[in-house]
Amino acid sequence: MGTSRRVFLGLVAATPLLTRVVPARAAGYASYSEIYRDPGLREGVDWGRRMLRHQAFGRTVVFAPHGGGIETGTSELCLAVAGYHPATLQASGAVCDYWMFEGLRSSGNSELHVTSTGCDDHYAQSLAAGAFNAVALHGCTVTEAERNWRTLPDQACALVGGANADLRGRVISALTGAGMSAVDASTHPTLDGGDPDNIVNRTLLDAGVQVEMTTPLRGGMFTTNTAAQRKNTTTQLFWDFVGAMRSAVAGLEATQEIL
């Protein structure tokens, strides 16, 4: 009995421990539900969500589908456009519902990018379905913006797309009026934001606005462009952009009646 036990323990010691190996996946996920189900990812470590639905009916919801380290600066802008200071979360003026998905890694957040047509998060879908209007804030590179399209008037530029032509025009006018470069992206081959399945267009009116901001534009909105310090180091450009967006939304909402 003692001998067999020693033999058994010797075999155990000589055998490598079996560990769970999560196979490497191709870059990118087709939907948020794939991310939520992935056993190799942890909420609060790899990714996170922030959202708020107000009790009173809100005409407009603000989205940042690629917040945190995926498309930097869009989380802070989402909060501010919705009416909340990104550092203190203090509300100021009219407030909107909001939803954001954030990459929380120190690097490699681009793997967590889900296209806006693949947004199957139930909370995000519910917010969109209950609002007249939606604004989605995104980030892109200058190369992505100009690829197969045309040269931007300024590298620090906002490309305004989405199916809501009225709000699209208001946003472009408000941004240019505030001294920023903004172009109509409704004809862009990849950044137009016009797909009916895009989360920004799944509203009561089947239309919203998608704003793609180039890296130089977002970079000028923070003096310290890090995950920890962006919310604390917003520049005048940041607040000019936020003010223009909120003005455009308020102007549209003033024309809409609640039945």
- Sequence of strands across the biggest β-sheet: 1-3-2-4-7-5-6
Number of helices: 8
CATH architecture: 3-Layer(aba) Sandwich
Distance between the ends:
84 Å
Overall pLDDT score: 91
Structural class computed from helices and strand pairing: alpha/beta
State the CATH topology. Aminopeptidase
Let me know the CATH homologous superfamily.
Poly-gamma-glutamate hydrolase, zinc-binding motif
Report the strand count.
7
Unreliable residue stretches = 1-26
Helical amount: 25-40%
- Report strand %: 15-25%
Total discrete domains:
1
So what's the overall shape?
globular
Largest sheet: 7 strands, mixed
Query: From N to C, what is the helix and strand string?
Result: HHEEHEHEHEHEEHH
| CATH C-level category | Alpha Beta
Explain the layout of strands and helices:
Layout: H1 2-14, H2 32-37, E1 47-52, E2 60-68, H3 74-81, E3 97-103, H4 122-129, E4 133-140, H5 142-146, E5 157-161, H6 165-177, E6 181-184, E7 209-214, H7 215-219, H8 236-253
Helix pairs in contact: 6-8
